[in-house]
Amino acid sequence: MILASSVGTLIEWYDFYIFGSLAPVIASQFFPKGNPTAALLSAFATFAAGFIVRPFGALVFGRLGDLIGRKYTFLLTLIIMGGSTFAIGLIPSFQKIGFAAPIIVLLLRLLQGLALGGEYGGAATYVAEHSPEHRRGYFTSWIQTTATLGLFLSLGIILLTRHNLDSDRAVSIAKFEDWGWRIPFLVSIILVAVSIYIRLKMKESPLFAKLKTEGKTSVNPLKESFAHKGNLKMVLLALFGATMGQGVVWYTGQFYAQSFIENACKVDFDQSRTILLWAILFATPFFVVFGKWSDKVGRKWIMLAGMALAIVSYRPLFSQLIKISDTDHKKEFITQKEISTKLKPIANTNNSIRTVTSARHFDGGIKLIEVKTDTLYADATKATIKPDIKTSKLLDKESYQWMIIIVFVMVLYVTMVYGPIAAFLVELFPTKIRYTSMSLPYHIGNGVFGGLTPFIALLLTSIHTDKLYGLWYPIIVGGVCLVIGTLYIRNRIDPDVNN
Amino acid sequence: MNKLKRYLGVLWMIIGPAAIYYLIKTASEEIAKNPVINTKMQWIVFVVIFIPIAIGIMIFGWFALKGDYDHLPESSAEVED
Questions:
Q1: I want to staple B27 with a disulfide (CB 3.0 to 4.6 A). Which of A70, A122, A328, B43 is the partner?
Q2: Pick from B50, B35, B75, B28: which is nearest to A39 by CA?
Q3: Which domain holds residue B23?
């Protein structure tokens, strides 16, 4: 039962993340630069689907789940998600069908966001309602591994596809950016088909089935969840005392850490991703460890300890990432510098595209690669005003391992805040409105507060010179959540959620 | 402890309007600085989505001030009233 529920949820997260991970490639295929309408659609696809639509999905499918049942609702979300993901892989590019392409992408992305909003609450509720008493934290912690494993799977499949389309690495990457990016989307249909087959064999939650037989299901779950003061105050407490902090810790430790390593530390594309992959691999078992432990000591203090550790250590940890990848204060082996130049003629002109690649070696083994691209004009009086310069660092083994350890620590915080939270949310609300009530604070906390972390952190960094300035967003949000959680949340384990 | 919870309710009620003010002020400054569609869209999304949340924390503060969080349910049965 746990496996059947978790596989579907994992695939939904995978489907959701491949779009985010492939955003630059998708943008080049469907949202051409310099076109304002395409830019509008692109921005909307990026922000709306992840942040606005997810809470709506929580309301729409949460209501359905409390009215018709958990099983059919989360089966429906899986079909919508799988169908949308597969369809994205089939859309012809902007060059072939014009504006129809970005509009279809946007609509499918919105459907993805809606489906994800409905999936998690259903899966967590379903598993929790099947769990034996006193083992709810352990059982639901398996569902909690799925978001991180979905990210792992998406990064892994993207990297594998990117490097296996041709024996020549550069050609393989070029093929991937041309058509190979569709493969991770198309693969999804196989995973979804298997998952649908498994889910069709599952039975309805026993608690919900009992309520239905007794005619005690909610007539209007939305009204009961949010217009009923006794329940509304718990929804607000769940959001401001738990899920808000959990969301920022989740996204800072995984998405922002990877983006920071790639963009602020300038670490190579593949290395920045494999660092996260290794960290996730080592840390994932701790979701289950902390979920199980929460059955003994309660959910509250494990979640809040993770939040407190994150708040206190984010700045030193990110500062270490900068220090490890720093080349400004390391000795350069000038004699080992390598420079190569390639010229590619531009059709119907006498000009060429010039690519100069230089590789500099530093003490400790870090290699700094700079690729400068400009136009070499036949007319010697002309020159490219602003050449395109891309810098990346290839880390030596020791630095690479240190980065894995640091990211592992941050993912460990994620496992602390996230491992027990499904059990915590389930125990906060009664069965007849549980799906609706727990889905909304989860998706506002995780989707809005968490999902916006990379964007807000980047925005903050862009208006200040301090590279760590963006961390104030998760630190402040996490800090407020920690205070509210410490003072207002009760550390209880409810063995009886049968009402 | 209950007194502290109530007093802090005032703080949560203040955080709401303060966040809305700061958000709108920053959004208008950033849009004026770089009035391209991407900047406008992202700030509009931030404002639209964070205003209801800011109202939510004000309601949370109001509940806290009134003492609605002095006693929390011991079990799910109690949540249902």
A1: B43
A2: B35
A3: 2-69
* CB contact residues (below 8 A), chain A span 414-453, against chain B: 427-432, 444, 448, 452
3-state class (DSSP) for residue B11: helix
Give A412 to chain B, closest Cα distance, Å. 28
pTM for the structure as a whole? 0.89
**Count of domains for chain B:** 1
pLDDT tier for residue B16 given thresholds of 50, 70 and 90: very high
Strand order in the sheet with A388-394: A338-345, A352-361, A367-376, A388-394
CB atoms B69 and A428 under 8 Å: no
Could you tell me the two tokens for A355? 């690519």
Say if B74 falls within a structural domain: no
- Domain membership of residue B63 (yes or no) is yes
Put simply, the chain A residues between 123 and 182 with a CB less than 8 A from any chain B CB are none
Identify the CA nearest to A353 among candidates A363, A362, A343. A343
Say which range, A33-42, A294-303, A438-447, A469-478, has the weakest mean pLDDT. A33-42
Virtual torsion, Cα B37, B39, B43, B44, nearest 10 deg: 0
Number of helices (H), then strands (E), in chain B: 3, 0
CA–CA gap between residue A401 and residue A393 (Å, rounded): 15
